[in-house]
Design brief:
The longest helix is centred in the middle third of the chain and has 15 residues. The chain is of the alpha/beta class. The mean pLDDT is 96. The strands form 2 sheets. A 6-stranded parallel β-sheet has the order 5-4-1-6-7-8, with helices on both faces. The chain has a two-stranded antiparallel ribbon with strand order 2-3. Helix 7 links the parallel strand 4 and strand 5. The protein has 2 domains: 155 residues, 3-Layer(aba) Sandwich (Rossmann fold); 67 residues. The protein is built from 9 helices and 8 strands. The termini are close together. The structure holds magnesium ion. The site of magnesium ion has 6 residues, from loops.
């Protein structure tokens, strides 16, 4: 049995004992692959900077990782003035409702969260996306992609504003997670620093580090994290 499946069994067992199983899911680069958002923004930028269009036309989601300009640099494009304009163009759009529709769920993510919810978990979406620009698009994409929302056992927690620091925000969220007085069965993150935080706060839980996209200047993963490429159970 895979670690992911084992976690679902733990959810059922905790629920059967009459306690509340809690599962915490990050969104960007955990439940959702943001490559589609990067590519849509890059295509839009190519409309105003046609010099990059021949490269952009050949790009696919798998070409993207952390930075939007990496696929251009990888293909030998090094016009720093254009790349700087791209960074500005990207920054004005990436953290905005209107572009979230381009994100696709990571492999197995929708089925897994549905299964966790069916098994009795409180599904707690905890994301570095912010209130005041990303809440509408976030709820729309969760709903349209088939993630459980509006069921009474789901919760969406965004940063209070854009400038809040991600890890500090997630540290504060620990108190809210504890306030349910349930059992934190599992958490899912792409950033090792956040996953380490959860491991430290809830040592009895399973703490998953998902995929291979994370901040290049982030922390190293602690021993004890469970590393998975996606949410496929077999
Ligand atoms: Mg993330």
């Amino acid at each position: 049995m895979s670690e992911l499946q084992h976690t679902l069994h733990r959810v059922q067992a905790v629920a059967a004992e009459g306690r509340l199983p809690v599962m915490v899911f990050d969104l960007d680069s955990t439940l959702f692959n943001t490559a589609g958002r990067h590519l849509a923004i890059l295509r839009s930028f190519a409309e105003v900077e046609p010099v990059i269009r021949p490269i952009v036309d050949g790009l696919v989601h798998e070409d993207f990782s952390w930075r939007v300009d990496d696929p251009l640099r990888d293909r030998g494009f090094h016009d720093e003035a254009v790349l700087q304009r791209l960074t500005r163009f990207w920054f004005e759009r990436f953290f905005h409702d209107d572009w979230l529709q381009h994100d696709l769920p990571n492999l197995g993510a929708v089925s897994y969260v549905q299964a966790a919810h069916r098994a009795g978990a409180l599904v707690y979406y905890l994301t570095g996306r912010h209130v005041g620009g990303m809440e509408r698009g976030t709820m729309d994409t969760l709903l349209s992609r088939g993630f459980p929302v509006y069921t009474g056992r789901t919760l969406l927690h965004l940063k209070p504003d854009f400038h809040a620091e991600d890890k500090a925000f997630k540290r504060v969220a620990l108190d809210q997670i504890r306030s349910f007085n349930g059992e934190v069965v599992a958490t899912f993150e792409n950033e090792p620093g956040n996953a380490n935080l959860f491991l430290d706060a809830f040592p009895e839980g399973d703490h998953f580090l998902v995929g291979n996209v994370c901040s290049p200047d982030g922390d190293a993963p602690a021993d004890g994290l469970i590393i998975v490429p996606d949410f496929l159970c077999d």
